[in-house]
């Protein structure tokens, strides 16, 4: 049993992480403002990471799982407020790499502004630096697109909605753009490997070894409902985020470091079926975008 502090704990990644480690019989503490329901079995530390005072000073955690650090002030304020801890694991992002990076992108590649991710990516860069300045042996994970149960971002859920409504699917260009995914449970299992084995590499890209075209991804999403999509290809000069759930940005992470310590990942077919089942039961938890409305008004 480990004593684990999870920042957040009420939305997608942090919520799934909290539940995963509770279910694995760990003593899990979550730090949040208590504005949403909590995962059953966690110990709530109610507060804002920027104004904790002495709340954490007398506590020891085997692991700090920092899921909600988005900029350097998030790191600095939490670190300055904590007592002692064993390991520190930060979930960063592949957005730290510029869009022009040579692919597949390795962990030692340049980190710079990405025109698609903007401030989100540069803030993550600063957060990483702030953490490593304070915790030299911290673990930093840079995921590709995360998916699976509890995903409140309107990505696979958008395609599920189209499938359930028997809508034709409007696909950017010829659908060859490739994406790299990683199931949320794989992220948790990888974190468990790091906690238990303390691998030598401390900064890891994380994602499935294989990428998939957006066309094939949509086919797999429709298949979760026993359906096949009829595609309409959009070649017009339209920003694809108006009608599709990803930027017009193809990248591939080099995940060889991850593969050495965590070689087997959940297949997309299995992972998407899990995501669809969860979505059917928790549709109200997803932040929906107006993609269908845009399509019906501008593309149909």
Low-confidence stretches: none
* SSE ordering: EHEEEHEHEEHEEEHEEHEHHH
Work out the helicity level: 25-40%
Helix tally equals: 9
Question: Mind describing the biggest β-sheet?
Answer: 7 strands, parallel
- How far apart lie the N and C ends? 55 Å
| Widest sheet, order of strands | 3-2-1-4-5-6-11
Task: Give the integer mean of the pLDDT values.
Answer: 97
Which structural class matches the secondary elements?
Answer: alpha/beta
Sheet-strand content, in percent, reads 15-25%
Q: Cα-atom Rg, whole angstroms?
A: 20 Å
The total count of strands amounts to: 13
Question: What would the principal axes of the Cα set say about the shape?
Answer: globular
What does this entry show, briefly?
The protein is α/β, with parallel strands linked by helices. Helices cover 33% and strands 19% of the residues. The strands form 4 sheets. Strands 3-2-1-4-5-6-11 form a 7-stranded parallel beta sheet. A two-stranded parallel sheet has the order 7-10.
Task: Describe this entry's structure for a reader.
The protein has 300 residues and is an alpha/beta fold. It has helices at residues 12-23, 72-81, 119-134, 156-164, 184-197, 214-223, 256-261, 268-281, 291-299, and strands spanning 3-7, 27-32, 43-46, 60-66, 84-91, 139-143, 145-147, 169-172, 178-179, 181-183, 203-206, 212-213, 231-234. It contains nine helices and 13 strands. Strand 5 (84-91), helix 3 (119-134) and strand 6 (139-143) form a beta-alpha-beta unit. The termini are far apart.
């Amino acid at each position: 049993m480990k004593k684990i502090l999870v920042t957040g704990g009420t939305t997608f990644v942090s919520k799934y992480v909290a539940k995963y480690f509770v279910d694995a019989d760990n003593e899990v503490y979550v730090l949040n403002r208590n504005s949403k329901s909590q995962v059953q079995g966690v110990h709530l530390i109610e507060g804002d990471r920027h104004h904790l005072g002495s709340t954490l000073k007398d506590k020891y955690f085997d692991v700090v799982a920092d899921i909600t650090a988005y900029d350097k002030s998030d790191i600095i304020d939490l670190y300055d407020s904590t007592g002692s801890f064993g390991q520190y694991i930060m979930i960063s992002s592949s957005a730290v790499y510029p869009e022009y990076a040579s692919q597949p992108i390795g962990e030692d590649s340049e980190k710079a502004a990405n025109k698609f991710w903007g401030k989100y990516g540069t803030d993550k860069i600063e957060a990483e630096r702030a953490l490593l300045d304070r915790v030299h042996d911290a673990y930093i994970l840079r995921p590709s697109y995360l998916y699976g149960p509890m995903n409140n971002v309107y990505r696979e859920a958008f395609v599920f909605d189209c499938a359930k409504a028997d809508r034709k699917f409007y696909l950017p260009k010829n659908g060859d753009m490739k994406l790299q995914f990683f199931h949320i449970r794989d992220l948790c299992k990888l974190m468990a490997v790091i906690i238990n084995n303390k691998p030598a590499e401390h900064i890891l890209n994380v994602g499935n070894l294989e990428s998939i075209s957006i066309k094939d991804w949509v086919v797999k999403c429709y298949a979760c409902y026993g359906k096949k999509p009829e595609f309409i290809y959009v070649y017009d000069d339209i920003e694809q985020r108006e009608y599709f759930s990803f930027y017009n940005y193809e990248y591939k992470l080099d995940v060889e470091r991850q593969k050495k310590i965590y070689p087997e990942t959940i297949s997309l077919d299995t992972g998407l079926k899990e995501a669809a089942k969860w979505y059917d039961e928790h549709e109200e938890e997803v932040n929906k975008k107006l993609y269908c409305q845009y399509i019906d008004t501008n593309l149909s």
